[in-house]
Design a protein that fits this description.
13 helices, binds pyridoxal-5'-phosphate, 8-stranded parallel barrel, alpha/beta
């Protein structure tokens, strides 16, 4: 079993997560439940920090969009990572957790004035500029606050990695950043350099997510360094940082063979060092923004089967108490997770099952056609490697409450986020006064 490094099995065939029996976890916290494995998250952070030491000056920002709660911010702070945020909500979460603003980097292709004011007002370390309008807006806000904003420019290096098209971001036809081709990145640099309230400290790119090949990273790093050197030498910009974004893929299925963190970082470092030498500049501070590879394999979602339906000669469905509302990845990208019958792991997996979500939508599936035992209501289903882009993408479709999330380590387990309640689901509603009086036909 390729994911057996994530869980253990007791003598009765029940899954243990960080030593905790999944039946007891559900008994205590309810279902569905997202279990985040603390030791694994910490080990992934350390793998990045250790590896990146091989390069002279580095910084690792955790891409908080992958999974964020105040507890997660604290964990990242404790492990010595910075934080990449892409909205006021992510920024406010980090600030509420007491995360040092100077170690936060702010992204976004449609940052509002309010978000930029919040970013500068709270003292975030870097704002990554994505478009021309933002340069003027940010400049005005910084001037108004009497401060100088430290900025990076997001460049689209024209690299198209082999991954789902929804998570490709470095190709020319992208909504993000300034294209290298056609001079728009040059124009952005010129505009920032002529805006005294902005201090250009670096360049940024992010070519996509769930990428297995080192080649597009190497190509992007070289293209970025060529531009970096030109900006420094010909435009006189005092640049010192290159942020290569995130994107390292993880192993969701036995057919996935992503590079290790070490291989990925070695590739980035050597590409940047080679290019620094070739283009005649000192190596910049190399920044990385991993998300999925920090938390993806550290999460397991537990569900309870509510009903089964066998359609002879066609398919067996097992419907669980969650689905696309807590994990839209299959519905959105066709992304597959390994699925296990977590309370029946020692029984033969000799039937084909499709696991369906609870929403009124045929597309609300978690997986099609996986081998599991003869499922029945009450069985526990575990969806593996759900730590990234599940809870952070969760919705309330059908007014389904978002699940609880726990942080589990040997000998301890506590909520990172409690389950939503009916009150939470109603908290935004407002009854227009004239409807309040209308009670319908008597
Ligand atoms: C700008 C930026 N940085 C970092 C990341 C994290 O990528 P990943 O989770 O693939 O490491 C993303 C994700 O889309 C991103 O948009």
């Amino acid at each position: 079993m390729h994911l057996d490094d994530v869980y253990e099995v007791d003598t009765k065939g029940v899954m243990l997560l960080a030593g905790h029996d999944v039946r007891e976890l559900i008994g205590e916290y309810g279902s569905p439940l997202i279990v985040m494995l603390e030791e694994r998250i910490r080990a992934n952070c350390r793998a990045y920090l250790k590896q990146i030491e091989c390069y002279p000056r580095t910084r690792v920002y955790y891409a908080s969009k992958a999974f964020l709660t105040t507890g997660m911010c604290r964990l990242m702070q404790a492990e010595g990572l910075g934080l990449d945020v892409a909205s006021a909500g992510e920024l406010q979460t980090a600030l509420a957790a007491g995360f040092p603003a100077a170690d936060i980097l702010m992204h976004g292709n449609a940052k509002t004035t309010t978000e930029l004011e919040l970013a500068l007002g709270s003292g975030v370390g870097r704002v990554v500029i994505d478009n021309l309008e933002e340069i003027d807006r940010l400049s005005e806000i910084a001037a108004g606050l009497g401060t100088r904003a430290r900025v990076m420019i997001r460049v689209t290096p024209g690299v198209k990695p082999s991954t789902h098209r929804y998570v490709q971001t470095g190709q020319r036809d992208s909504k993000f950043g300034f294209n290298l081709d056609g001079g728009s990145a040059d124009k952005a640099v010129g505009r920032v350099l002529s805006s005294p309230p902005l201090e250009l400290v670096g360049l940024h790119c992010h070519i996509g997510s769930q990428i297995f090949s080192g080649k597009p990273f190497a190509i992007a790093a070289r293209a970025m360094m060529e531009f970096y050197a030109r900006v420094k030498k010909e435009m006189g910009a005092p640049l010192d940082e290159l942020d290569m974004g995130g994107g390292l893929g993880i192993r969701y299925s036995p057919d996935d063979f992503p590079p290790s963190v070490k291989e990925h970082i070695d590739n980035l470092c050597s590409s940047v060092l080679d290019a620094s030498r070739d283009f005649g500049v000192d190596p910049p501070v190399l920044c990385d923004e991993p998300g999925r590879s920090i938390v993806g394999r550290a999460g397991v979602t537990l569900y309870v089967v509510q009903s089964t339906k066998r359609i002879l000669g066609i398919r067996n469905y097992a419907s669980v108490d969650g689905g696309m509302t807590d994990n839209p990845r299959y519905a959105l990208y066709g992304a597959r997770h390994q699925v296990l019958a977590a309370d029946r792991l020692s029984e033969p997996a000799d039937e084909l099952w499709s696991i369906s979500g609870r929403c009124c939508e045929s597309g609300d599936m978690l997986v099609h056609d996986v081998r599991l035992p003869d499922l029945r209501a009450g069985n526990i289903i575990a969806l593996m490697c759900t730590g990234a882009y599940t809870y952070s993408m969760a919705s309330n479709y059908n007014r389904v409450a978002r699940p609880a999330v726990v942080l589990a380590a040997p000998g301890r387990c506590a909520l990172l986020a409690r389950r939503e309640t009916p009150d939470d689901l109603l908290r935004l509603d407002n009854m227009p006064g004239w409807l309040d009086d209308e009670k319908g036909p008597a």
